[in-house]
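The protein record filed here.
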Amino acid sequence: METSRMRILRAVVAAGCCAVSLSAAAQQPAAAPQEAPYKIEGGRVDQGTYNGYRRYGNSCERCHGQDGAGSSFAPSLVESLKHLTHEQFTEVVINGRQNVTTSQQNVMPPFGQVEDVVLYIEDIYGYLKARSDGALGRGRPQRVANQ
């Protein structure tokens, strides 16, 4: 049963994604490169990216493998984020996805009601995008000092 808090969280995430998307599109030409959702200085990550690493470990690693590298159960998110947009990633995480064919059955359950994921989806995305872009290696990242 969905609580009022979860409905609010879902609405905030949906509105935030749309607002970010629309405002970014209005301010930048379509071909302009987007700012990275992570910051890495001297091999150390910002607090959000570090938090994304921690949240990923708690909620995603059991299926998608250590460091987002994939497993026999679920695909590599490091590879997936080379092709998925931020909006597509958020859509799949919040609503889940089923990819069932005669040769395979891939099901991603929805995490739209899991507060530990919904509230920190931007941090998780930032961490995985840093991994996907090759800006961050495997293992526990070090944080930038004084954050």
